[in-house]
Amino acid sequence: MSNWFSTWLENQKRTRSFHPSWILLVVAATLVVAGIVWIPAALVSKAEYDRLPSAALPASDKASIPSDEIPAAVEQPGFPARTGPKTIRVDFSPPDVDAIPGGKFGEAVRLGRNIFNDTQTYARAYVGNALNCVNCHLDEGRKADSAPLWAAFAMFPAYRDKNQKVNSYEERLAGCFRYSMNGKVPPPGSKELVALMSYSYWMATGAPVGVELKGRGYPKLAEPRQPPDVARGKKVYEANCAICHGADGQGTQVSGRYVFPPLWGKDSFNGGAGMTRVETAAGFIQANMPLGKGGTLSEQEAWDVAKYMNSHPRPVDPRLVKS
Amino acid sequence: MTSTPPPRPPLPLQRHARAGRLTAWAVLVAGASLANLAHADRAAGATIARQGAGGITACMACHGAQGEGQAAAGFPRLAGQGQAYLLKQLQDFASGQRKNPQMEPIARALSAQQMRDLSEHYASLPGWKAEAKPAAAAQPAGGARLAMAGNWDAGIPACFACHGPDGAGVPPHFPALTGQPNAYTRAQLKAWQAGTRGNDPQGLMKSVADKMSDAEINAISEYLETPSFYGRRE
Question: Which of A78, A80, A208, A74 shows the shortest CA–CA distance to A145?
């Protein structure tokens, strides 16, 4: 080969005339260069594409999340699904509470945490029932699949069907005060909203922006095999929930404070709250209830008990009340 | 159609007799409930606790004169624990649903009435108070946190989410944890893991214990013996 090449080269040098082998040489060289550049590039981008959703696969626990097909947008009721690469789900863990910094910012974060965990004490004026934010956003607003704050923060501003406009994060917080807490909306810029914003902002420290984080919102369950049924739900309730939330759904108090919050009635969330949607409640319940045994109810049981819970009277949706 | 004749109206004498029996019953029932109100049960329970009864060892020997337990031996505190919870434990020891070589024979020897008297007695004694024993200087940091916030990375809720604020219990189903000997709490958590204690309603406590590491069991057991509540949310 090299023998042939050198004789050919010598020949060229001598004659300075064109030889048909040039064509072959040029084509082969182009292919080699293109191969070096193009094949690894294609491999790398595919690996990157695969890595994101597979990292977002459930570690072990949440069998309820439908296996993540690429790029599975979790559809949040009330939020239009984002399209394109923004719906790729990414793992994220919020910083430890011990990492809350000092100074003015740290103070605001700590107040936000107190308001979130003990709304009854720290934002009394804006609460119209017996609930605390943490009752529906477990582990101080940190638990995945319990609408954690770290996953919510970077997703706003966002359009919401509920009020048919683009909402700021502050406006989203206000919504939970008005409906879930059956209360009044703290004015924009009030120390309560500033503190809750600070707490959420701190919790999202280091979170990638513009992508949906794994664990956001409550899991969306598949359509139930049988339509949700109040009578079946009552049985599920009595066997799994009544021990804590009471046979009458009114929760359990110790010295005037709720240890187990009420699920319906005057001290619970009102008719406009997200939790009154059976699909939202079913997702929350399947992932988080009974406390400490999340993921043990079947999806059908979760649908049924959610339907049962929401078949009871509760404070009216303030949008339906004429002022 | 006309198979049974209508009942005959009772004779005047019979009517009187019935009224008499009714009044006798009423007096009896009223008397019994009065006796209940006067804590006759509790007193009977206190006597068994102090002296034992017919082959039953005095509870005091192991659970302390005031039901405070014995930390060194790992015998649990009974004082101030919920009545329904105590009664259920005695029934579970007797039925073998809860296993323990010391308590099973004792519980089997107790009558249903004695069980009620004893649980009534111990529930009426003062429960653990933070002031009773100053908190040990160095609390295991992990213990307080587990008690008040849990470890959700492992799926463990705060202990006090079920066992009530400050771990003082939520009757009737959730017992008080505070003031229990370190060795006792540790033994219970291990018993759930090993399957030798399986009497908790809906498996609620087993689902928690199963997720705990040895280090967490040690930290929480040490913490609960003399907990301090410093550093909680407020």
Answer: A74
Q: Which residues contact A290 (CB under 8 A, 6 or more apart)?
A: A240, A241, A244, A296, A297, B202, B204
Cβ contacts (< 8 Å) between B233 and chain A: which residues?
A: 113-114, 117-118
**Which pTM was predicted?**
0.82
Q: Chain B contacts of A114, Cβ < 8 Å?
A: 233-234
pLDDT in tens, B147-190: 999 999 999 999 999 999 999 999 999 999 999 999 999 999 99
Domain that holds residue B144: 136-225
Q: What is the pLDDT of residues A248-273, one digit of tens each?
A: 999 999 989 999 999 999 999 999 99
Tokens of A157: 């501003």
**What does the pLDDT average to over A188-207?**
95
CA distance A70 to chain B (A): 26
Q: Which of B124, B145, B161 is the last residue of a domain?
A: B124
Q: How many domains does chain A have?
A: 2
Q: Report the complex ipTM.
A: 0.80
Q: For residue A285, which of A258, A266, A308, A256 has the smallest C-alpha distance?
A: A308
Q: Number of C-alpha atoms within 13 angstroms, CB side, residue A243? A: 16
Identity of the amino acid at B196:
T
